[in-house]
Amino acid sequence: MTMYNDFVIRFANVNGSGSASANGMFAKALYRMGIPVATRNIFPSNIQGLPTWFEVRVSEKGYLGRREGVDIMVAMNAETLADDVASIKPGGYLFYDSSKQLTWALRRDDITEIGMPISTLLLPEFADPKQRGLFKNIVYLGALSALLNIEFEVITGMVSTQYKGKDDLIAPNIHALEIGRRYALDYLDAPLPIQVRRSDGVGDRIMVDGNTAAALGSLYGGATVCAWYPITPSTSVAEAFEKYANQLRKDESGRRKFAVVQSEDELSAIGIVIGAAWNGARSFTVTSGPGVSLMSEFLGLAYFAEIPMVLWDIQRAGPSTGMPTRTQQGDLLSCAYASHGDTKHPLLFPSTPRECFDFGAQSLDLADRLQTPIIILSDLELGMNDSLCDPFAWDTKQRYDRGKVLNAEQLEEAGQFGRYLDVDGDGIGYRTYPGTHPEKGAFFTRGTSRDEFAAYTESPDAYQRNMERLVYKWETAAKIVPQAVVHDAGEAAGILYYGTSAAPMTETLDMLAEDGISLDRIRVRAFPFGEEVMTFLERHEIVFVVDQNRDSQMRTLLVNELELDPAALIPGRYYAGLSISADTIYSQVKAYFEVTRRPRIKRA
Amino acid sequence: MTFVAKPKVHHPLLPVSDLGLTRRDYEGSVSTLCAGCGHDSVSAAIVRACAELSIPPHRFAKVSGIGCSSKTPSYFLSKSHGFNSVHGRMPSVATGANMANRDLFCVGVSGDGDSASIGLGQFAHVVRRRINMVYIVDNNGIYGLTKGQFSATNDKGSTNKKGVPNLHEPIDLVSMALQIGASFVARSFSGDKRQLVPLIKAALMHRGVSFLDVISPCVAFNNHNGSTKSYEYVRGHGGSVVNAEFFARHEEITADYAPGTREDVRMPDGSTLQLYKLDDDYDVHDRVGALNYMQRRAQEGDVVTGLLYVDPNTFDCHEVLGTVDTPLNELNETDLCPGSAALAELNESFR
Ligand SMILES: Cc1ncc(C[n+]2csc(CCOP(=O)(O)OP(=O)(O)O)c2C)c(N)n1
Ligand code: SF4
Ligand SMILES: [Mg+2]
């Protein structure tokens, strides 16, 4: 029986061998055939030589989370061959370069071997060994097109666009594709019983990574100053911002309407952003966990001095340097309460590239409105992998919300100006940009205590009044940050998740439903938690809280902030560095219900 | 502490500037530093320099780190915004402020602890980034605000109040600034207004980082015998190598200042810097020569002051980055948002 559009294929390569482009074309080809795909790079902290894997989940049903087990292994790295063979699901396929014989020890009788003498085939074709190395990738792509029944024109079309302008590269690439395809058709059992066929599963969706989306959101949202220090997996946000700003943000004479500063460290990066924001420019920085640790002192200053700024934390596995190229949601607590003293920062949790785009722009509005740092917690899984999402959208009527800022005329009209006066009762004062008015509106910004008129004071009352006002402001924040997405069908139990744990959630719930377990769901999109989060948690007897960290940090945050009974919040955790899979969440929920059956029954 | 409040009324005899303002319009709130602290004299010199240049007193961005010195932006230019940030990080905040609005005069005040100890990295990097700012270090050789510990600029062998000598090599910020490529480098003394005021004026008119290391004695913790940062020591061992007189564009250039070989330097804004070399061997445009000279004289125990290096034809970070003339904080949706048609094209590129 032939199975269509439902498998996991994994490419095992050597870092720096040029496989990324061939593998990317593979995924894109399926996408262009209308088939839902999700890609995942599993790469080492290394530039050249170490093993790297690229995984594509193909799912007609649109399940785009990671799935355990590999159906087709394209094994191009001798060093990892043993493990790679072992990871294939029974009944799966091993595609390998048979120029060298597979050792007997590796053979499995529950999988199908597809050997193709790629190196031998290439020997007479390309004299330069380096070229042979690169074309190896293209040859297996050609072979896969036959084995999986990928429309060949889709791939050749892609080669032509990819090498536009470098036309002399097009012919040899297509030739290499044909070598692979020809061989597969002539000598192998192509196509396989697992294959693809054109579908309408993609719809209108685009295929992009979260970091590119974050950069574009920041660009559309009017960020003018970006300061950053390189760290995986956040680097590509700043690089993409600069790239697109260079394309889309220059004046007629080529001068830039933005400034990107690659600073000497993260302390400086956030200092620059704070200085720029204080002086009225929308500004942001991007980093990962280690950078957040360094930025902590400044985050406290920005909280207390009420500076609007945006910080993207593309999380990776900690603590310390941890696993720099593996994903995790490990920075919730360190970000929520970053810095000394009583500090709290609004957090946003994007789940898709589209949400990275939206939050990129929205966070700048929120920062200006709330006059405080907004931290966006993405992660490596979302930031660095291409995934499907709704196309980016921008309403041309949309205006930036620069928050409460008084210009010269408004200062003339205003009776008295007190930077930290709570005029509107929402805990947010009015600010002015430096240099606005010759006589009015100047104030001194400091991390030390001050009164409503920004004058230095160590008065206990004034200090406490100010700290209490910041609590009102926090309550205002809870009302305007993005609301959770709730699906409540009246079940007794629910599941709460955020960020990239959304990717496998539909599949998880479908798997559970097959076992008769129905869960309501809530996807939290921001901290502080809105009322809808409290309502959901109070209404359900138990709620599973899915975290991609060891210590169930979201659960801690919920218990701490909402004063809930911890016993009603069941931790679901995965933090080993790969993307969380439906199988993982499913088995943890199942295991829970095997012990306690109570809330499983559907409510009348 | 100097708690004598200065009334904000204009004295009829105070000179009125082109803007119809007097020096009072450039002052700040009452200083809470110790009476006699060198830092107050530096603030007074800033007030005078800005007033004499007739810069609108609200067009500054004052930034600082943490320390007695970093408190001083409160004590001058109260019509401008100020930002007392965190310890050692003034240069990054200044960088951001300057990125956001290139039209404001950016004045950063720091201490020797703030810049040479905790903030040495930021000091070095703001210099190499060429941020258009005046960077003043009130250098007293110790941490004033934490009560007198040695800072990194304290000379080896110089003693604390109890007579205990500093055992470590000093960091010379002037030499570092020269090495990293600062285009305006000066050392001065808080007790020498005659020298300091023209230097601050020239620094404000210079493009790029203008670095001023101002020896500014701490009367509470480092003004005793045995200290090389006391009033007495600097008066006894300090010597100017190049004196400067500053003439704004509209001012008549006169030449009545001290001896020495005279050289007129035109500043980018059309003002004139009149230099008087007191040592014929010294060339104020020779970076390497300046470094050698400073180091040789320092070994002899001398505190060389004056304008040490200037390259008037230089450029700043905005020119390096190629940013627009309009301050970035004035750009709006029309300038910044590429619009929905461009977004449709971007979406297409992701298909
Ligand atoms: C991160 C941090 N560490 C330590 C301090 C404590 N501290 C405050 S001021 C200061 C030293 C200031 O020395 P300097 O910059 O020379 O200024 P001065 O008071 O001498 O003018 C220190 C260590 C601090 N505020 N922040
Ligand atoms: S302690 Fe020293 S540096 Fe601080 S105010 Fe007093 S004299 Fe000035
Ligand atoms: Mg000091």
Task: Explain how this protein is built.
The complex is a heterodimer of chains A (604) and B (351). Chain A is of the alpha/beta class and 604 residues long. Chain A has 4 domains: 3-195, Pyruvate-ferredoxin oxidoreductase, PFOR, domain III (Pyruvate-ferredoxin Oxidoreductase, domain 3, 3-Layer(aba) Sandwich); 207-389, Thiamin diphosphate (ThDP)-binding fold, Pyr/PP domains (Rossmann fold, 3-Layer(aba) Sandwich); 408-477, no CATH class; 485-596, Rossmann fold. Chain A has a 7-stranded mixed sheet with strand order 11-10-12-13-15-14-21, with helices on both faces. In chain A, helix 10 links the parallel strand 12 and strand 13. The longest helix of chain A has 21 residues, at 460-480. Chain B is of the alpha/beta class and 351 residues long. Chain B has 3 domains: 23-242 and 282-319, 3-Layer(aba) Sandwich (Rossmann fold), CATH 3.40.50; 251-279, no CATH class; 323-349, no CATH class. Chain B has 12 helices and 12 strands. Chain B has helices at 38-53, 68-71, 90-100, 112-117, 120-129, 173-180, 193-205, 231-237, 287-299, 317-321, 333-336, 339-349; strands at residues 60-64, 81-84, 105-111, 133-139, 142-143, 149-150, 184-189, 209-215, 238-247, 261-266, 272-277, 303-310. Chain B has a 10-stranded mixed sheet, with helices on both faces. Chain B has a two-stranded antiparallel sheet with strand order 5-6. Strand 17 of chain A pairs parallel with strand 2 of chain B, so a sheet runs across the interface. The complex binds thiamine diphosphate (TPP), iron/sulfur cluster (SF4) and magnesium ion (MG). Magnesium ion (MG) binds next to helix 4 and strand 5 of chain B.
